[in-house]
Task: structure prediction
Amino acid sequence: MKKHSSSEALVSKKAPESENDIYADLKADHKEIKALCTKIRSNREGDALHVVRDFSALKALVTAHARTEERVFYETLMQYTEGAEAHDDDLKHFLFEAYEEHHVADQLIQEISSLDPSDPRWMAKVSVLSEVLNHHIEEEESDLFKKAKKELVDAEAYTLAREFEDGKREMMEAN
Ligand SMILES: [Fe+2]
Ligand SMILES: [Fe+2]
Result:
């Protein structure tokens, strides 16, 4: 990859330093998702009220994050896997796998929502959901971000961040 000199890098950045790029936005959500999973799982014996409130926050965040991430980030990257510009077959496979992992998380979230927290399957399913999410986040932040950075120029990573923030906010507010 072409390395910019420090002065070129300053000129090529179209957004102020205070604004996140798409990777920083996604990472911030991932951190919150992981923290909520840990909080819910550490409350095994705890009160149902807090656990239900934390799960409902996790459900809202994961749903808004995954749908907006698919629409803004995955679909943009998918365009780089098609046509004459396509050069990374791995990226396409990786994206398809990521969609499936979102699907598994969605299904578990629906199943957990239909159970009473006193049901022993409730926490078992939350544990599996947490493992699925942690695995997905780890792969996303290492492999997928690395591949994305080869395709997206800096300006695009900032534009996608604004689209992601607006789209996610709309979904959270509609919830
Ligand atoms: Fe993500
Ligand atoms: Fe994802």
User: Anything to note?
Assistant: Residues 18-174 form one domain.
